[in-house]
Input
Amino acid sequence: MTMDPRIRILPETLSNQIAAGEVVERAASVLKELIENSLDAGATRIQVVLKRQGNDLIQVIDNGSGIAVEDVPMAFERHATSKISTLDDLFALRSLGFRGEALPSIAAVARVEIQTRRQEDEHGWSYRVEGGTTGEVEPTAGPVGTSLAIKALFFNTPARRKFLKSPATEYGHLLGVFKRFALAFPAVDWSLMHDDHPVYTLRSGDLKSRIVALYGEKVQDQIRQINLSESGTSAAGFVGTTELMRRSRGDQFIFLNNRPIENRIISHAVIAGLDPLVRPGDYPFYVLKLDMDPHGFDVNVHPSKAEVKFRDESAVHQVVRHAIRAAMGSGDVKPAIPGKVKPTETPRKTAARVPQTPAPQKPMPIEVMDALYKPVQAEPVVVEKAAPRPASPDRKESVVEDRAPEVAEPEEPEEAAALWQLHNKYILSQIKSGLAIIDQHAAHERILFERAMRYFRNPPNPSQHLLFPEILELTIEDWNTLKEYASLFKDLGFVLSDFGPRTIRVEAVPSGLRVSNEGKLLKNLLDEVREQKKAHPDPREAVAASFACKGAIRAGDPLSEVEMNALVNELFRSEFPYSCPHGRPTVINLSLNELDRRFRRS
Ligand code: ADP
Ligand code: MG
Output
């Protein structure tokens, strides 16, 4: 790019300083540009050395291609780049840099020293630029590759220096850049020194080992692999389970053809692919690597190249959403539960004692969960350890199931998965990778929530009819809530009839619940719906969440082996097994690795 001399009023140094304002916002932006250059030069080892949060020194040493001696001064001229030569290259970009702006901009606001040597050179060359004033190219010793040392950043632009935030903030940004590239390029060896202390030494490996190296061994069990290709875009990487959910932004990484980017469409799609109940203030952990034809996007929309514009935004959104959803549904945490309860097509028979109601119009597929409420002895699975226990004391005798207990079907003998209940609160289960700990209340909440949502799509839930319908007088508030949500309550399986002013008759309640007091259940639900409404603008979600919350078994409820089986089984058949409707985890894994480590077996 050559400029007409007549309009070139700005001295070169000044215009570089202006450009520097765009590219070099802070120390972290310098680091980013230097690392990009090293990667573009094919480096497999990159060492970063910082002093005083980059104020005194930002140095990047690589083992890449090096620069030919005659090109060294060129590299510091504006729009000098070895990476693109035609406009078409710009649209088919594979390298990280391309604007040819970074080095001259940095050199305009700092003291820069470069040492570089190519494989074929007998020795290296060094060169200095200070605030735009160049020195001589001089021979020097040194290994193959390039070292760029940026000293006294913003020494000649005090106004810029004032914009810098606290040292901790600036250091945080530097670390962020380092981590981002270390994650994008796990096959590269990285190291980071700050004020002569080693901060990270990362050996090349795969992405998972890189994540573990940066975030600690613990995360191994808290991430799920992303792996999906759709309409020309492939998505790979890892997404954290709810255990890794953060209250602050920071550990979300998006790479497009290995370029770290920021993009609202994609971050939105990740959230959309996660549980719909992830709250707006939650930040999931993810490292998402997208690959697509470079013609599908444009990176040249921002000088720091961090933002891209996609040609087909909705297609990208969809791929990411699907990829995240698939990842969250995967994982080896599913316990191997024996005696799988098969969904059976047998239409249900009504227990003769109560006249059948019109409530279940369509035969519902039998939910595995129903096993929870079957008498223990009706269950075909015989588990050695299962101690005979009396029916739950809170099982309501006045409740008659709409169906007769099914005849036990013979099951293939399978080895029983071990399940234990801990303090009537947690279920422990052996899984392939170690131990799964399930919160029985949270798990049941998840199950009930999804069931409710299913019943809303495909109503109604079968009802349990009460032998003695309950008459309830409601407060104005409850009455109004009930009127507002009447059809959803009906879909849940409530059969209610008017009995007088603000008075209703509860004739049936949703089946599949352990209820001891139907009237109280209804009132609690109405109360809860008003609460949930605040968090869930969708009335169906509000009612489903309330139903889950008030209907679920509680901590303290003893469960039989059969009940535990049914619970665990249905949990892992749900769409989002890993968190309850409030976003709390339902399952925590303790891997054998973790146990071995804690017992110092190595
Ligand atoms: P860009 O990266 O956009 O091309 P830069 O100003 O960042 O522009 O760098 C200018 C040129 O200097 C690059 O095109 C490259 O040829 C050379 N260069 C910079 N850093 C390195 C490095 N670490 N190793 C090899 N070449 C480099
Ligand atoms: Mg560059």
Observations:
- DSSP finds 15 helices and 24 strands in the chain.
- The chain has a mean pLDDT of 78.
- The radius of gyration is 32 Å.
